[in-house]
Amino acid sequence: MSELSDLYQVILLEHNHKPRNFRKLDNPDRTADGFNPLCGDRISLYLKVNDGIIADVGFQGTGCAISRASASMMTQSIKGKSVAQAEELFQGFRKMLTEPGAPTNEELLGDLEMLSGVVQFPVRIKCAILAWHTLRAALEGKEVASTE
Ligand code: ZN
């Protein structure tokens, strides 16, 4: 982790220490579980979707600091957004991690861009993207996410 910028580390550690929306929702409309066998990260995601808007989101799980911080940041970034916007964020985030050097849409990604440092650690990319694959599974009505 020593190669990561200080800012990146501070934000990541802060989200890991105090993850946002780290709770199970009472009556979720959609749920999905994600598992990253490479690292052992597990996440359960809960969504409330009203008229195509992600009205509430919560997650629980165990895993490394990156998976937890990424899930925390994801819940912050999708809450209140439409399902279409969440899909756009997913695409932008995945592109940032899987196509290093490609232009990133900073306006779209906002704070999520801080996770771009993960590309230096290929084994960690699945940790960072797990929550997003789980989100997509939940939105598509699947109960288990694939990290492929
Ligand atoms: Zn991990």
How would you describe this structure to a colleague?
With 148 residues, this protein is of the alpha+beta class. The chain has a single domain, classed as Sufe protein. Chain: A (Alpha-Beta Complex), CATH 3.90.1010. 41% of the residues lie in helices and 18% in strands. The chain has five helices and three strands. The protein has a three-stranded antiparallel sheet, covered by helices on one side. Helix 1 packs across helix 2, helix 2 crosses helix 5 and helix 3 packs antiparallel against helix 5. The longest helix has 16 residues. The model has no long low-confidence stretch (mean pLDDT 91).
Task: Produce the secondary structure layout.
Elements: H1 6-17, E1 30-36, E2 41-50, E3 53-62, H2 65-78, H3 83-98, H4 106-109, H5 125-139
Antiparallel strand pairs: 1-2, 2-3
Helix pairs in contact: 1-2, 2-5, 3-5
The structure holds zinc ion (ZN).
Features:
alpha+beta; single chain; 148 residues; three-stranded antiparallel sheet; Sufe protein. Chain: A
